[in-house]
Amino acid sequence: MILRRSHWRFNTSAGAATGLGPFNVETGMFAVKDQAGMSHKYAFTGFGMGKTWALSSALHLSKFALPKIMVKKNELGGAGATTDFPSWGTVFLTDAFKGTDLTDPKSLKGGSVYLEGAGGYLFGASGSLMILGINRSLLVMGIAKPDFIGTAIRTAPAALISGGFNEGLQDSAGGAYLFGQVDYKGLYSDNPAMAGSN
């Protein structure tokens, strides 16, 4: 997949994620501005598998280890961030997108596959590469039969590389591979008083 930078600009993001053993679930939102300066809001959800390592154990700082929450022998943890937390990102177009640049904000909605890495001790940071606008039917087929994943990903018109800070019950570093979806939620306002109009 060849990526080229879009003129659409990242605005902000927020989200929450939790993991139980190797299983990861997360939900959140991001907003991007079109070339006219209008900001558009998207909501996403994802689930997948990941691997984490306890930072305090890896650094031999056992006295700093956080209390563990165990559910059927698996450790539960999580982190989240609001739009008040610093975040950054860049929108890219793929070789599947044949136009000059995005014009329809709904082009980014659809299925999603993304890679995410995160780490922190109470306060942390994460980064992800999210493939956007995948044909949902092909993605469902790909989840059932992995041979279709590559075909599904090649239908995506865009990608978002983003990162930001978070906080939560975390004493770990790791990564995850997730499947999910992105929905378009209309115009986004940075003014909380206007949030009901989004």
* Order of helix and strand elements from N to C terminus: EEEHEEEEHHE
Classification by helices and strands: mainly beta
Radius of gyration over alpha carbons? 18 Å
Number of strands: 8
User: How would you sum up the major sheet?
Assistant: 8 strands, antiparallel
Helical content stands at: under 10%
How much of the sequence lies in strands comes to: over 45%
Runs in which pLDDT lies below 50 for 5 or more consecutive residues are 192-198
* Individual helix count: 3
What is the typical, i.e. mean, pLDDT?
A: 87
* General form: globular
Alpha-carbon distance between the termini? Answer: 33 Å
Question: What does this entry look like structurally?
Answer:
This protein has 198 residues and is mainly beta. The protein has helices spanning 55-58, 136-144, 149-153; strands at 3-20, 23-33, 39-54, 69-71, 74-81, 87-94, 110-134, 158-187. Strands 1, 2, 3, 4, 5, 6, 7 and 8 form an eight-stranded antiparallel beta sheet that branches. Strand 4 and strand 5 form a beta hairpin.
